[in-house]
Amino acid sequence: MLVGLPNLSYAQTNDTTTTKKTTDLRESIKTKRDEAKTSLDDYKVAREEQKLAKLIQYGDKAISERTAALTEQKSRFSAKNCPTVALTAVNDAFATINTNLVAQKTVLDASTTLEGAKTATRDIFQKNRVYKYLMPAAKGACIAQKLISIIDGRLAEAVTKLKAAGIDTVAIETKLTEAKTAAQSAYDTYLQILKTPGGDDDGNKTKMNAAKTSLQTVRKTLGDVKSDIANLLGTYRQKSKNPGTRTLDEPVTP
Amino acid sequence: MLALAVDSQPAIGQDISMFPEPKTENTGSTALSIFIAVLVLLVITGGISWFYFNSKSSTPEPVATTPTTTVNDPVETASTTVSDALQDLDAELAAIDSDLNSTDDDVPTL
Hints:
Oligomer: heterodimer
Distance between the termini of chain B: 165 Å
Strand content of chain B: under 5%
């Protein structure tokens, strides 16, 4: 039976799942986050002569918290939910950010003026958009590549079987090509963001929106493909009873 | 009486049988039994044949079922795969939106 859950159910489930995933990540590094927050509060109330030391201390805590977030998020990607080609790109991007954070800690710790420490601390956030761009770009790259794998794998296999049964699959093949092109476009865009997740907020925001639009195209096209598959199955069953030439465009009587 | 007694004696050279000839009525009874047995055998064989061919004719033709199974399986699998993929995609799109609205990358007031 080709029965899927209603979209409304998907949305409700996904909202809950998304909230849980986001919460879990932050919960898992709660200690680090609390330490950074306490350190920031200490800096704000510190006497002037202690400000530099307290700010460096806070910056180090912020780096520690972001490193922990990266480690936690990275552990959630595997070959199961992220095809190898995307997983390699994601791991490389995470490694680059880690290296950047280590370098920035060196700069921060070497600061001799309050203004210098402030600049170094701002760089920790502005040059390393861990939460805002790196993590969503990694998720987007993985899902885009996963969709490409499905299109090239099981869906292509199904089309081959249908063709062998003498069923016209031109319409469904056109849609699969369209979906794959959109998924590839989304993947390429997410890769660009993964390479430079910081320092270009406007550019990355535009890219994130473009990639999202591409994934929505994939969403719609694959939804159509799903309907076509149901239609093809009906066509095939009818054809088995009453042999004759049929195409996807012909309505199938239930 | 004497003459009758003499006549009742077997003549010289005539065989004297110690065992009586089988009665002709027994032969007819055996034939009837065989006939009935053959009849019963035919009825049983016919019944078995009828059930055999009748049940065989009601079984769907393998030619019709084989391609249905072959094609339906990958198509239904593909349909399930698409459903799962769309569900994953919806979840990831929602997660991505949630990340984009994160304030964790905002620089605090220093």
